[in-house]
Design a protein that fits this description.
Blueprint lengths: L1 H37 L9 E6 L8 H9 L8 E5 L2 H9 L4 E5 L1
Antiparallel strand pairs: 1-2, 1-3
Helix pairs in contact: 2-3
Length: 104
């Protein structure tokens, strides 16, 4: 009976090892395909906005703090350039009282 249990355990571990190898191969193949699809082409004519934080985030609503963080601003008088998209425009409009915005 002990011999039968050993052979069953060996068969189970072999299956587990082959399954792990198959998962590793699949995982290695996915990032290469994802990188190809996710690589955006550099466009020289992308319109950008220069956004500067001129008022403090302290004491503001959590959603306003999140918008400032989403724009990439971390501290006072920091300037970042963001792409002019409807999503970024929405965040800028929501916290426009805290920002100075210029076309770059």
């Amino acid at each position: 009976m002990a011999d039968e249990e050993k052979t069953v355990k060996k068969a189970a571990t072999k299956k587990a090892v082959t399954k792990k190898a198959a998962v590793k191969k699949a995982a290695a193949a996915k990032p290469a395909a994802a990188k190809k699809a996710a690589a955006p082409k550099a466009d020289a004519k992308v319109k950008r906005l220069s956004v500067t934080l001129v008022r403090s985030r302290h004491g503001r609503l959590a959603s306003h703090k999140a918008c400032v963080a989403g724009l990439g601003l971390r501290r006072m008088h920091q300037t970042v350039q963001v792409i002019d998209t409807p999503e970024n425009r929405g965040m800028i409009n929501k916290v426009q009282y805290m920002l100075n915005v210029e076309e770059a």
